[in-house]
Amino acid sequence: MVNKEKYRQGTITPALLIIASAFIIAIYGLLFILSLQFDYSNRQIASEKAVNIAEAGINYYQWHLIKSPGDYQDGTEDPDGPYIHDYTDPQGDVIGQFSLSITPPSQASSIVTISSTGYTNQYPKIKRTIVAKYGKVSLTAFAFVHNSNLWFGKSITVNGPVFSNGGIRMDGTNTSTVQSAKQTYICGVESGCDEDGEEKPGIWGTGDDETLWEFPVPPIDFAGIYVNFSQMQGAAESEGLYLPPSGDQGYQIIFNSDGTFNLYEVTGVDYIKGYTPEVGCQDLYQVILDKVLVGTYNVSDTPVIFVEDTLWIEGTLKGEITVAAARFPLGSYTTYIYIPNNLIYLAKDGTNSLGLIGRDDIIMTRDVPDYYEINGALLAQQGRIIRHHYGIQGCKSSGSDKNKNEFIFYGSMISKDRSYWNFSSGPGVPASGFVKSTLTFDPDMANDPPSYFPATQYQLISWKEE
Hints:
By secondary structure, this protein is an alpha/beta fold.
């Protein structure tokens, strides 16, 4: 007799197999999807870690530049790189690497480009790259940078940052920050205080906006501000215009609005007496009597001019140029720069730039126009930017041009010694100088200074991921 119950029980097996197989397939599919999701998440985490590692490489080389400012080879003898470093987690385990490529600054710039590529050991093919540009803080990031005490009178308006290692008396108008490295200082007659000196706050005065006054702040090391005159001379000889000692009175440069300039050799001069409290009465040979045309040059063909003699400079500049005056051996000769007339840009639109560097004083002459304007970054490395007192008793020449109506400046003034152009005689018209002065910072020069202009410490200019 056939057992029908036995056969009925066996017919369930194929259905169970089908159900079990479908379940297993679903489970494996789900596990596969979960594993893909898990791997995707891990890759996302690895990508985030890679960019963090790349950023660590940027931070490392910024620190390296502070420690070794002139090393663009990561402390090695390999000029090309890349330079690879391990990256560790807080427990000290190596979890990845960053690879550095360094582009050193050009001869005429301070900008270093750092490319850092980061990746983890677990996912070495997942890489992120950051490119950062660092440049030394340009002195042209300020309207004024001085190493001594300053006094801004009531008739002066400053539209731009001001910094001094000394104290600052601010009686004028400031529309940007005013910074002093002094908590307090001794104010003397140079700032309208008593001869015996008075202790004053780092910044004080009757200026309008004290909320912009900051003191004390870290000083700028003027001893470390290095102008490489030898390098500039070499660059002028190879790619610009080098003017050796004339054997006469010096040279005159007059910029023309068509992008050229006329160069003259000065063969005859006359003096005008001028006075400063620091030096006393001087015979200033600032008046040109005779000159001979040397030639006409294109600004674009002479991006740097180096003059080993006294220089007179004026005109309307179209283009970008750096002009320096110093004579070797440095310190053995005095090379003044005279600005007897307006020295301006064709347009203040960022396409024109003048760097004017003197080892000694940069002087505004007596007979400047009644409305006098200078555009550019002016640096008196071992001197000052000044217009002398041309009317003091016992120290004045014939003529009555001691006072002028207005001085307009656009750019940056930087000097080791105190720069000034007004002499006070109480409220109203100055004893000698300008009735009104307006000084405006050139924002285009903040991160794009004239070639060969000195700078201070490194700071980040730009950061981007590639």
